Amino acid sequence: MRVNGGEAIVPNVIEAVEVARRRGILVIWVVREHDPLGRDVELFRRHWYSPGKPGPTSKGSRGAELVDGLVIREGDYKLVKTRFSAFFATHLHSLLQGAGIDTLVITGVQTPNCIRQTVFDAVALDYKSVTVLVDATAAASLEVHLANVFDMKNVGVATPTLEQWSKSDA
């Protein structure tokens, strides 16, 4: 599904994923997929779904696919979510704990919704290190993006650029 601001960061997301793979970091693709009738969609979005008219991120629809250029490869992991946070009503925390992962690097859209909620849940769950790549995440406007980045920094989240993160030991 098209999200304003998202298209511009796709090249940086692709590069971040490649850097992660070279470093041996598990790549988890978090995707939004919903029941075609919208039974698992937030109440405020249910009007987008009706019988005979699957909603914009219905399972199997074009809107639920990764955008062109983003490719799930062997060894990556696909996690389906139905809410803003990748942790809400998913098994992500158990998956990460089972793999001994306590450091997260986050990319994607939309900064004030999915990114922010996932980050705040990760902080609440006491992940040792949470990083948001500021130029591999986006919102509908730069002002909204930067305001949310500011809030995340205030709870201890690292916010480097892709270049800074790529050159670091993290």
UniProtKB/TrEMBL annotation:
InterPro entries reported in the protein's UniProt record: Isochorismatase-like_dom (IPR000868), Isochorismatase-like_sf (IPR036380)
PANTHER family associated with the record: OS02G0276400 PROTEIN (PTHR47044)
Membrane-traversing stretches: none
UniProt name for this protein: Isochorismatase-like domain-containing protein
Family (UniProt): Belongs to the isochorismatase family.
Top-level taxonomic group: Eukaryota
Isochorismatase-like domain span: 4-161
